[in-house]
Amino acid sequence: MVTNINLSFEEMWEKIIACDRKYDGLFFTAVKTTKIYCRPSCRSRKPKKTNVEFYHDINEVEKAGFRACKRCQPEVEHSPHVGLVRNVITFLVNHYKQKLILTDIANQVGLSPFYLERLFKQETSETPRSYLEKIRIDKATHLLKCSTLTNLEICYEVGFQSPSNFYKVFRNLKNCSPSEYRKEFQNGLD
Questions:
Q1: Any idea what the Cα angle at residue 164 is, between residues 163 and 166, rounded to 5°?
Q2: 67 and 36 Cβ atoms separated by less than 8 Å
Q3: Half-sphere exposure of 48 (CA within 13 A, CB side)
Q4: Count of Cβ atoms closer than 10 Å to residue 170 Cβ
Q5: What residues have CB less than 8 Å from 43, skipping those under 6 apart?
Q6: Residue 2, pLDDT above cutoff 50
Q7: Residue range 154-172: mean pLDDT, rounded
Q8: How many CA atoms lie within 13 A of 5 on its CB side?
Q9: What number of CA atoms fall less than 13 Å from residue 88's CA on the CB side?
Q10: Which residues neighbour 78 within 8 Å (Cβ) at sequence distance 6 or greater?
Q11: What phi, psi does 29 have (nearest 5°)?
Q12: End-to-end CA distance of the chain
């Protein structure tokens, strides 16, 4: 399916200079001198304006003899960072009980903490910390339903370092305290 957008050469040029992600997939930037094509949001060095051609369809650009950029991977339907984010989430799920700081997570995937947080937030709209807190609260709700552990035991079992933080995060995500949650669940079974 070819979806031509109604943008002039100048407008498309402005989009690639701004690295605008909203236009990814709507058109592709092909560089005549390198024979490489990119997404509008590609962060690679910008070519000379005279060396650029725009294509609206990925098949057109490949038929014209251009190859995909290795940095922005325009031939991949999803964001090029999905695999990295998936690795971070897997790490968080597998290590939620441990005391984790952003540096630990960043070291695991080989990025700087700042870049990891920016990328993760870009892809998931959350920080790694808030994502980890959600994982921990999911585990806590499961334990509240399925075990006889006290709230304090559950707090430490799911990786929180302090009860006050556990209660605060639990209330923010579930709109009730752990005790209220357990009580509501038990009342639902009766």
A1: 60
A2: yes
A3: 5
A4: 27
A5: 19, 71, 72
A6: no
A7: 95
A8: 17
A9: 33
A10: none
A11: -100, 120
A12: 55
Q: Give the three-class secondary structure for 70.
A: coil
Percent of the chain with pLDDT over 70: 93
| Tokens (6 digits) for 14 | 């402005």
Place of tokens 């024979």: 35
Is the predicted pLDDT of residue 186 greater than 50, yes or no? yes
pLDDT at 77 over 70: no
Q: How far is CA 160 from the centre of its chain?
A: 23
Domains of the chain: 9-68 (3.40.10.10), 82-189 (1.10.10.60)
177 band by pLDDT with thresholds 50, 70 and 90: very high
pLDDT at 19: 87
Token pair recorded at residue 31? 């560089």
Instruction: Name the phi and psi angles at 52, rounded to 5.
Output: -105, 140
Over the chain, what is the mean pLDDT? 88
CA dist., res. 134 & res. 115, Å (int):
21
